[in-house]
């Protein structure tokens, strides 16, 4: 403290007291300070609002007002600098009042010495610093320095009280970073934390750049926890004010972040709740803004949505499904179905894809499109994916034990599963425990998964192929579709996404894309698999283009393991489904 200049304001209506205080401070050689003096209560209010002083020394008697009145007024106006009260005579009752009001010290005129005054000032400032540290720990997020949930709720409560009093609208925005868990899983939590700090910095810069005259400036950003942030707009003229802030946030966040040498692209989903239409209390507004945010995620992410009443029902349904999903593994409610892959030349079954289904306790089979995204958001995808791998490997061994020829089983890897540091160890254990050869397992990985961190992905893929596994790029054509990465990654096949196959005979663009994919893959000596084949016309087109394998409802829907056993048995007896379909007239009619 000795190196810091302490700015002191004396508020006293007696000039003699000013002279005495000045002289006492001049004797305090270790106290670097400036002393300013004003003599009236009204002047003091103006000066205190400027927040330019480190400590205030205030006479208890200020004409018709008191130093306690000034202290209370200053506290209400947000002044956090310490107050030292002076009085003409010692009074225990006044002393207690001063302490209860928040005064740092209480000194009796005539009994003040230079060391006493210096000690009182130092003590007051140090005490205030301690209080500030405690206050910051209680009301601010330790990582981002933004207000935390407690402070945000308190400020929102004040905003709603003012909105009710003055009959204006307020807004709450609930912001969540899209796919943030993937960033943590890919780069680690330390980098994820640094990214959150960068996000907080950008949000704060929005507050500084906005013009409050437009009535759409953010009044407060807060971090509730994780990658969730909230925004308070105290006063809005119309609901479009909130939309303008949401757009500004998304534009700001969409600019790439450079963290630890990595260029990271993120987006956010934002939910908006308006006072009083969407709630008149803190809890209801936050809950409804949260529901709107999830609605934004369901609509493709990287957008904002206003709250609508039906969203609470959707949010409740989502929460119910999440709770059911958490219990589904231990209750053994998941099933694996298998869809055969057919050699387009011979009709033979060359493999099968394992596809997960959820047999919900309320009845009926839940398709993966309804629960996989939720599993990814909640982190349940990791234990679920490991269960799929283990179950598929165990089933492959069971079929071989029944006497069927080894037929590779394909398993879709989730992004989070592929990025696990110990994934290869887990996979080795599963293969060892199941008893099957690595060649009996095919891993399907999407384009987006392998391109999230190319260098790491290449190393991981090579490690998998060294184990003897075969790798397939799934949903090819829906992502980057870059020739350069196909030459870098040790893959043996690509799968044409079903969206291209669906209209391959009616949409010339889709047909051209499919032809280009097949040609490109064959030039790189890669096999091509087309999924979603449902008609003879689609099959005939793929035959002409030289596609290697197909799968889809034309041959078989996904089947339970028992039904798949029957299919394998039928093929062993010469009655395979692929051969039967080819015998019906859809044969290999390649263009020569």
* CATH level-4 homologous superfamily of the largest domain: EAL domain
> Can you give the mean pLDDT?
85
Query: Can you list the strand order of the major beta sheet?
Result: 15-16-18-19-20-21-22-23
Report the strand count: 23
Number of helices: 23
Main sheet attributes: strand count, strand direction, barrel closure: 8 strands, mixed, barrel
Distance between the termini: 90 Å
CATH class of the largest domain: Alpha Beta
Please bin the fraction of helical residues: 40-55%
Strand content: 15-25%
Radius of gyration: 35 Å
Task: Give me the secondary-structure category.
Answer: alpha/beta
The stretches of 5 or more residues where confidence is low (pLDDT under 50) are: 208-215, 588-592
Q: What's the CATH topology label of the largest domain?
A: TIM Barrel
The number of domains: 3
CATH architecture verdict of the largest domain: Alpha-Beta Barrel
- From the spread of the alpha carbons, the general shape counts as elongated
Walk me through this protein's architecture.
By secondary structure, the protein is of the alpha/beta class. It has three domains: 6-138, Response regulator (Rossmann fold, 3-Layer(aba) Sandwich); 149-308, Reverse transcriptase/Diguanylate cyclase domain (Alpha-Beta Plaits); 332-583, TIM Barrel (Alpha-Beta Barrel), CATH 3.20.20.450. An eight-stranded mixed barrel has the order 15-16-18-19-20-21-22-23, surrounded by four helices. Strand 15 and strand 16 form a beta hairpin. Helix 7 (180-187) packs across helix 8 (189-209), helix 10 (282-298) packs across helix 11 (310-328) and helix 13 (381-401) packs parallel to helix 15 (423-434).
């Amino acid at each position: 403290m000795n190196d810091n200049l302490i700015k002191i304001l004396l508020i006293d209506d007696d000039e003699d007291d000013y002279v005495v205080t000045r002289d006492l401070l001049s004797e305090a050689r270790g106290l670097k300070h400036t002393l300013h003096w004003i003599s009236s209560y009204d002047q003091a209010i103006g000066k205190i609002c400027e927040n330019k002083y480190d400590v205030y020394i205030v006479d208890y008697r200020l004409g018709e007002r008191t130093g306690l009145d000034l202290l209370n007024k200053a506290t209400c106006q947000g002044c956090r600098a310490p107050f030292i009260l002076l009085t003409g005579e010692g009074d225990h009752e006044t002393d207690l009042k001063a302490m209860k009001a928040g005064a740092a010290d209480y000194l009796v005129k005539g009994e003040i010495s230079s060391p006493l005054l210096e000690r009182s000032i130092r003590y007051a400032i140090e005490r205030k610093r301690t209080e500030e540290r405690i206050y910051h720990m209680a009301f601010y997020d330790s990582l981002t320095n933004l207000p935390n949930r407690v402070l945000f709720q308190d400020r929102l409560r004040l905003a709603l009280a003012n909105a009710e009093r003055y009959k204006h609208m307020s807004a709450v925005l609930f912001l969540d970073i899209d796919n943030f868990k993937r960033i943590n899983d890919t780069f680690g939590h330390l980098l994820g934390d640094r990214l959150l700090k960068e996000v907080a910095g950008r949000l704060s810069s929005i507050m500084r750049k906005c013009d409050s005259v437009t009535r759409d400036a953010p009044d407060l950003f807060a971090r509730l926890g994780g990658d969730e942030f909230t925004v308070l707009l105290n006063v809005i003229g119309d609901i479009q004010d909130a939309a303008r802030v949401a757009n500004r946030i998304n534009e700001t966040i969409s600019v790439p972040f450079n963290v630890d040498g990595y260029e990271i692209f993120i987006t956010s989903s934002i939910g908006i709740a308006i006072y009083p239409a969407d709630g008149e209390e803190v809890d209801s507004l936050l809950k409804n803004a949260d529901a709107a945010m999830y609605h934004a995620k369901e609509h493709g992410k990287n957008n904002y949505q206003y709250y609508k009443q039906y969203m609470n029902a959707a949010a409740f349904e989502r929460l119910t499904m999440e709770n059911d999903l958490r219990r589904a593994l231990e209750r053994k409610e998941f099933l694996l179905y298998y869809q055969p892959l057919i050699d387009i030349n011979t009709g033979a079954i060359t493999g099968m894809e394992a596809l997960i289904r959820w047999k919900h306790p309320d009845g009926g089979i839940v398709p993966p499109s309804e629960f996989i995204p939720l599993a990814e958001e909640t982190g349940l995808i990791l234990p679920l994916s490991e269960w799929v791998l283990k179950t598929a490997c165990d089933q492959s061994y069971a079929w071989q034990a029944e006497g069927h020829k080894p037929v590779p089983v394909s398993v879709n890897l989730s992004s989070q599963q592929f990025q696990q540091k110990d994934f290869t160890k887990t996979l080795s254990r599963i293969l060892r425990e199941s008893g099957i050869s690595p060649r009996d397992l095919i891993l399907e990985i999407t384009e987006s998964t392998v391109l999230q961190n190319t260098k790491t992905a290449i190393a991981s893929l090579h490690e998998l192929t060294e184990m003897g596994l075969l790798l397939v790029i799934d949903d090819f054509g829906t992502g980057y579709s870059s020739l350069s990465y196909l030459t870098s990654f040790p893959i043996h096949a690509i799968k044409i996404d079903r969206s291209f196959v669906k209209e391959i005979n009616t949409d010339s663009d889709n047909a051209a894309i499919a032809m280009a994919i097949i040609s490109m893959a064959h030039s790189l000596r890669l096999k091509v698999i087309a999924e979603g084949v449902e008609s003879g016309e689609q099959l005939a087109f793929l035959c002409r283009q030289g596609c290697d394998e197909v799968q889809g409802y034309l041959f078989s829907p996904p089947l339970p393991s028992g039904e798949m056993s029957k299919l394998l048995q039928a093929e062993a007896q010469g009655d395979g489904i692929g051969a039967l379909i080819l015998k019906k007239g859809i044969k290999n009619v390649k263009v020569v």
